[in-house]
Amino acid sequence: MAYSYQLKRVDFIFRNENDWEKVLSTTIKKKPDEIINELISSELKGRGGAGFPTGLKWKLTAESKETEKYVICNADEGEPGTFKDREILSKVPYKVLTAMAVCGYVTGAKEGYIYLRGEYKFLENELNKAIDEFLYYCQEINLDFKIKIFMGSGAYICGEETALMESMEGRRGEPRNKPPFPTQAGYRNKPTVINNVETLVHTWTIFKYGAKKFYDLGVQYSRGTKLFSVSGDTPKPGIYELELGMSLQDFVYEFGDGDTKAVQVGGASGFLVPRKKFKDTAIGYEGKLVGISLPTGGSMMLFNSSRSMFNVLDNYLEFFREESCGQCTPCRVGCQQLLLGIKAVKRGEKPASYLDKLLKLTETMQLTAKCGLGQSVANSFSSIVENFREEMIY
Amino acid sequence: MMNKNVNITINGFRVEVKKGMTILEAAEEEGIKIPTLCYHKDLCVAGNCRVCVVEVVGQKRLSAACATPCEDGMEILTNSLKVRNSRKHIIELLLAEHNADCTKCYRNGNCELQKLASEYKIMTQDFLELSPLKNYTIDMYSPSIMKDDSKCIRCQRCVRTCAELQGVNALTVAYKGDRMKIATFFEKAMNDVVCTNCGQCINHCPTGALVERNYIEEVWNAISDLGKHVVVQTAPAVRVGLGEEMGMKPGEAVTGKMVAALRRLGFDSVLDTDFTADLTILEEGTELLTRLKKALVEKDQTVSIPMITSCSPGWIKYIEHLYPDNLENLSTCKSPQQMFGALAKTYYAKARNIDPENIVSVSIMPCTAKKYEAHRPEMHDSGYRDVDYVLTTRELAIMVKQAGLDFEKLPPAKFDRLMGESTGAGVIFGATGGVMEAALRTVYELVTGREVPFEKLNIKPVRGMEGVRKASVKIDNPLEEWAFLDGVELKCAVAHGLVNAKKIMDTVKAGKADFHFVEIMACPGGCLGGGGQPIPTNPEIRKKRAEAIYAEDTSLSLRKSHDNPEVQKLYKDFLKEPLGELSHHLLHTKYTRRERF
């Protein structure tokens, strides 16, 4: 074995702890500023994939003078290859609820919503029971905060925060123009904190164990741990909590089946890394580290040499073509062009050089699409086409 | 906040703009045009076509100029290489999706996408054509509006128009991704849904996806048929819009040239809808006074007050769909177009000794709902179809161009006699508040024997572009016959744009409206902003057209409907009296309850 490095597994998120009442009551004895500073010093970044500093998000919302504010837990886990939020909500819902209530206390929001993915309807009953128990305790300690579940209907785009809010307001799930950002004008045009399920659980860890404990994990710019949903050609698919900053080589060493050809980091909207780049790739947020640093919402899909990268890309593009909300030109038409384009090249109806035109098109999509969906189609497209060009043509 | 200024640079030039202004507005002020498609001055910002993207230095992605507010220190590039390449790409994408068979398109020559493609010189087609892959069919069921999804660029201007200006929501977005389209309720045909046929969606569509059902060939055929006597009537708003189609500036009244052109096109008699507008005032004014008498003197509980005008067929269909319980509030008067139609094949035919069978009645309207109105089964009271063909201002312009007329050089001409005479009161029907003003001029004088107490008959409170306007006129010393109105404050309200109609109708429905008389026009600005008017129509253009209408009113010597000598003659020779038996038969109608989807 060439590598002696062990992946640093951690166990914070699913650690079975029954003291959420204590965590809640002691945390809200602190001043809001104190809590925000703690979050900021932990350098926790959003775990949905975009990586916005969580402490700053709470701070911006707390600073707003509006009296009506909201906390939303984004549980519309729709990215192909992620299934971590489902586990969190079924195993440790109290950590999420506690974090939402603390967020409400810090920002001044009195209402929280869990936007639950349509396909997770089966979680609703259990989750409602947990909410009832949780709210009962909130009443006991005189914490004025309510939590409700809002069921999504199954559109991928509704995981985009502003489309999610449109959907909650009873309209079509279409992303809004930004600015204004949700911290200024979110749900019902009021300041809103919207956090991924996992992000909220991490804040819980920070409330309980302190910012330092969290900060000490991971590497510079990418502090703490992260849940990974491991799937594909692996002998041990599942959910793993690992420290950020690991090299992809180590990851493949641990999870690969010995024949790993490439790993898709971050789901359909993420990047594909071919074997030759495993060593230079680290998993974490963009920073000044050496090599490539790839952020991820947690989806890690491994492909072995039996897989056709053309089929992989074809599958992603079909997904995007269908799941684009369809409002903005680059995303709606762009996705159709990319899909039909690679098929045309494969069939020999377009020359191989047409792939370069499509690559240019993804640049435009990245520059001009209205929301993260259209902007990130370029990620998987260019990383697959550039690294496996041959497979696209023959 | 709004008064504070911010400093930005646009293409390297430092400028100071108001805080809160978008990049698009700031650039426009500096004389820099940023191309747009989904943006329209009448509508809220959508930011979905992405044609207006600009570079804000220091930002990774481009920003939509229409949706991004200027912030202090912003360095904006509207024509950098990045911007140009992206913009070109986006236009190419739209063209790939669009059925770009321009030569066969009704909007050929006045299409925003075509214009952009020409400006950016898109000479090749790199991307795959998408529209042949989708089984598009054209919805031609409505007598007013045709919807061709293959030409739709999904800018959602029609959707916003239908929601924000009209509050009707007949058109909405359906499906997602590549299947996303603009659709009606369950994709039913346009004539089976709540659509009011107002045509505002046509007027706001950048391409040929929504166009009027045109009857140009039918009219040419009628004109060429020597056995037919073709009469044409022109609505008041057409004369202040037509010039724009002929290359003139907005706000020029071209009444004389229009009449000359119509005569040269070969119409046998060129007449004026303003004539029946005056007639409408006498019928409707009398109806109002009758209703007031029943309500105030006879205490008749069955009489519905306020009485609401019925000139606007878009509004009629709206109330039929959305407030069917209030149909009794509508005046039973037909619209001027339909009064004209009914008279053309009775009174006119008799007077001119022509078999009504051989009369083809054409009307030129600023409106697409008029096409539907003429089509209604109720509108056959002359024994024939009262109005055979309705053309929009735009269609007339096409005919004038086809006939090769040099419009600007035409010597002004006058309307033919018998149903061609009108007063200023008839002319102002074309602007919001006009029917109300015309009615007040007549009703007040009918009741008191004196002119309405406003300077030069200009009833300013009912004019303007505010969505809902209210006014009242106190009646003192009425004639003996109307003694019951002594001291009564006649309260009126005016609304234009159906979203404003809703505001009034909600109070009427709740029984909280304290008006006696309400004027409602379906389109913003009244008929002059109608769905059949030249494209583009926007707030500035509507204002100019309104000015032209009021100028036309003041220029006329007769400004009160009851002074119209031809109308007086009509009553003497034919109808006998307002609300008489014959007018009841020919000039009044009833309405239908409709479903709400």
Automatic annotation (TrEMBL), chain A:
<feature type="domain" description="NADH-ubiquinone oxidoreductase 51kDa subunit iron-sulphur binding">
    <location>
        <begin position="310"/>
        <end position="355"/>
    </location>
</feature>
<dbReference type="InterPro" id="IPR011538">
    <property type="entry name" value="Nuo51_FMN-bd"/>
</dbReference>
<keyword id="KW-0411">Iron-sulfur</keyword>
<keyword id="KW-0479">Metal-binding</keyword>
<dbReference type="InterPro" id="IPR019575">
    <property type="entry name" value="Nuop51_4Fe4S-bd"/>
</dbReference>
<dbReference type="InterPro" id="IPR001949">
    <property type="entry name" value="NADH-UbQ_OxRdtase_51kDa_CS"/>
</dbReference>
<protein>
    <submittedName>
        <fullName>[NiFe] hydrogenase diaphorase moiety large subunit</fullName>
    </submittedName>
</protein>
<dbReference type="GO" id="GO:0008137">
    <property type="term" value="F:NADH dehydrogenase (ubiquinone) activity"/>
</dbReference>
<dbReference type="InterPro" id="IPR037225">
    <property type="entry name" value="Nuo51_FMN-bd_sf"/>
</dbReference>
<keyword id="KW-0004">4Fe-4S</keyword>
<keyword id="KW-0408">Iron</keyword>
<dbReference type="Pfam" id="PF01512">
    <property type="entry name" value="Complex1_51K"/>
</dbReference>
<dbReference type="InterPro" id="IPR037207">
    <property type="entry name" value="Nuop51_4Fe4S-bd_sf"/>
</dbReference>
<dbReference type="Pfam" id="PF10589">
    <property type="entry name" value="NADH_4Fe-4S"/>
</dbReference>
<dbReference type="GO" id="GO:0046872">
    <property type="term" value="F:metal ion binding"/>
</dbReference>
<dbReference type="GO" id="GO:0051539">
    <property type="term" value="F:4 iron, 4 sulfur cluster binding"/>
</dbReference>
<dbReference type="GO" id="GO:0010181">
    <property type="term" value="F:FMN binding"/>
</dbReference>
<comment type="similarity">
    <text>Belongs to the complex I 51 kDa subunit family.</text>
</comment>
From TrEMBL, chain B:
<dbReference type="InterPro" id="IPR017896">
    <property type="entry name" value="4Fe4S_Fe-S-bd"/>
</dbReference>
<dbReference type="GO" id="GO:0051539">
    <property type="term" value="F:4 iron, 4 sulfur cluster binding"/>
</dbReference>
<keyword id="KW-0408">Iron</keyword>
<dbReference type="InterPro" id="IPR003149">
    <property type="entry name" value="Fe_hydrogenase_ssu"/>
</dbReference>
<dbReference type="GO" id="GO:0005506">
    <property type="term" value="F:iron ion binding"/>
</dbReference>
<dbReference type="InterPro" id="IPR019574">
    <property type="entry name" value="NADH_UbQ_OxRdtase_Gsu_4Fe4S-bd"/>
</dbReference>
<feature type="domain" description="4Fe-4S His(Cys)3-ligated-type">
    <location>
        <begin position="82"/>
        <end position="121"/>
    </location>
</feature>
<dbReference type="InterPro" id="IPR009016">
    <property type="entry name" value="Fe_hydrogenase"/>
</dbReference>
<dbReference type="GO" id="GO:0008137">
    <property type="term" value="F:NADH dehydrogenase (ubiquinone) activity"/>
</dbReference>
<keyword id="KW-0479">Metal-binding</keyword>
<dbReference type="Pfam" id="PF10588">
    <property type="entry name" value="NADH-G_4Fe-4S_3"/>
</dbReference>
<keyword id="KW-0411">Iron-sulfur</keyword>
<dbReference type="Pfam" id="PF22117">
    <property type="entry name" value="Fer4_Nqo3"/>
</dbReference>
<keyword id="KW-0677">Repeat</keyword>
<keyword id="KW-0472">Membrane</keyword>
<keyword id="KW-1278">Translocase</keyword>
<dbReference type="InterPro" id="IPR001041">
    <property type="entry name" value="2Fe-2S_ferredoxin-type"/>
</dbReference>
<dbReference type="InterPro" id="IPR054351">
    <property type="entry name" value="NADH_UbQ_OxRdtase_ferredoxin"/>
</dbReference>
<dbReference type="GO" id="GO:0051537">
    <property type="term" value="F:2 iron, 2 sulfur cluster binding"/>
</dbReference>
<feature type="domain" description="2Fe-2S ferredoxin-type">
    <location>
        <begin position="4"/>
        <end position="82"/>
    </location>
</feature>
<keyword id="KW-0001">2Fe-2S</keyword>
<dbReference type="InterPro" id="IPR036991">
    <property type="entry name" value="Fe_hydrogenase_ssu_sf"/>
</dbReference>
